[in-house]
Design brief:
This is Site-specific integrase. The chain is of the alpha+beta class and 417 residues long. The protein contains 18 helices and 7 strands.
């Protein structure tokens, strides 16, 4: 029997339903569908399954393209998706939804691939490249950020963005970079320029444009921010922070507590759902940067606190106000840090303080690692595994926190000589 459709909290007309038999990345597989009104009649269209690479945002784009190209789409009588235009077909039984390639409607994806795009080298603009790139990132929920689009819109959309890529000169980009550095942090400038660089390279890779990337390494030197946070909390500071957060937002308190206990990144906490809690095994299933799934063994205290939320398998443990996935930490965290005197309260004070000494949510992950390093009970390689770093180089920043071990090793020479 088909599962009940669940309405998307973010995209109008988009729904999804879970498979009672098939699983993907440790969770029930999802089939995304959308509905449209054509000539007064409600039509339902299957887009595809999560295991086929379909996302909620892709379903929304499919609905948009469907409405735009309805006449062309309906004229394709050989398309198997025609059968999905009725509620009866959209609610197919689970018995017909086994192999991934036989489920969903692959022809919808084929149809969407035929939507016309700009391909003329002489007219292909930076705006075209960035739109293509950000749309690509949006298909992967683990990538992309609204800050990328907002930063681009403010800086480039109405200036270089309107120019063909073939006409953009390195000197123009350098001038914009210099102006940005007068009023923005180097890390912010780096992010905005990197978006453009990656977008042009992606356009070249997709054969949408041919030429030299004006944002390439041989033409533009990127800012090099020295903004690695050196600050970590003492146990007393951590307790004080948790007390203040509890007064204002119990959910934010629990998120901070969870990061201190496990070293989870904020984005990993945002993605946690009810199905990710394995109570019997004492495991949290984490979706890391890049979309990789990994099992994280945690204490019973952590499991009990998260399980107490009583979330359904597909519900986020820490949802936003609409029930969807959170995208950023509440400003409450910054306000608490300002109140405690850890962060600057005014722009004038901000300019006088060392940027690396500020406290933000990621400081809690840094604190988790620093406390472990200071304990002297874990090696750097063990710490790398606990932090889930891809390279030991990322973990070496904590080496200076193990001075006692280093001293004991060098003392061996004193015994010999």
């Amino acid at each position: 029997m088909a599962q009940e459709r669940i309405k998307s909290a973010r995209y109008p007309g988009v729904y999804w339903r879970e498979s009672s038999k098939n699983r993907f990345n440790g969770r029930p597989d999802r089939c995304f569908v959308f509905c449209v009104k054509i000539e007064g009649k409600l039509k339902w269209v299957n887009v595809g399954w999560l295991s086929e690479g379909i996302s909620e945002k892709q379903a929304a784009q499919a609905r948009k393209d469907y409405l735009t190209h309805t006449k062309d789409f309906l004229s394709r009588q050989d398309t198997p998706c025609q059968a999905a235009l009725s509620p009866e077909t959209a609610q197919t039984s689970e018995s017909s939804a086994t192999p991934a390639k036989k489920r969903g409607c692959s022809n919808i994806k084929t149809h969407l691939a035929t939507v016309p795009q700009v391909t003329t080298t002489q007219t292909y603009t930076l705006n075209d490249a960035v739109e293509l790139y950000l749309s690509y990132l949006a298909t992967d929920t683990s990538c992309g950020d609204s800050r990328d689009r907002n930063g681009y819109d403010v800086t480039f959309r109405n200036t270089l963005g309107k120019m063909p890529l073939s006409e953009i000169k390195a000197g123009q980009i350098q001038q914009i970079k210099n102006e940005l550095l007068k009023r923005l942090a180097p890390a912010t400038v780096l992010r905005r320029l990197s978006t453009c660089r990656a977008a042009v390279f992606y356009a070249i890779k997709q054969e949408m444009w041919t030429g030299v990337n004006p944002f390439g390494r041989d033409r533009l030197t990127m800012p090099r921010p020295q903004n690695k946070g050196e600050r970590f909390l003492t146990p007393e500071e951590a307790k004080t922070l948790l007390v203040e957060l509890q007064k204002r937002s119990p959910a934010l308190h629990d998120m901070a507590w969870l990061s201190l206990k496990t070293g989870l990144r904020s984005t990993e906490i945002f993605r946690l759902q009810g199905a990710d809690i394995d109570i019997n095994a004492g495991v949290l299933w984490i979706t890391e940067k890049g979309g990789n799934r990994t099992a994280l063994h945690v204490s019973r205290q952590v499991i009990d606190k998260l399980a107490a939320y009583g979330r359904q398998p597909s519900e986020y443990i820490f949802p936003d106000r609409h029930g969807g996935k959170m995208t950023h930490i509440s400003d409450t965290f910054e306000r608490v840090c300002v109140k405690l005197g850890w962060n600057p309260a005014t722009p004038q004070e901000k300019g006088k303080r060392d940027f690396r000494k500020r406290v933000w949510f990621h400081t809690l992950r840094h604190t988790f690692a620093s406390w472990l390093a200071q304990s002297g009970k874990v090696t750097l390689y063990e710490l790398r595994d606990l932090m889930r770093h891809k390279s030991i180089t990322m973990t070496e920043r904590y080496a200076h926190l193990i001075p006692a071990q280093t001293f004991k090793k060098t003392a061996i020479i004193d015994e010999i000589l």
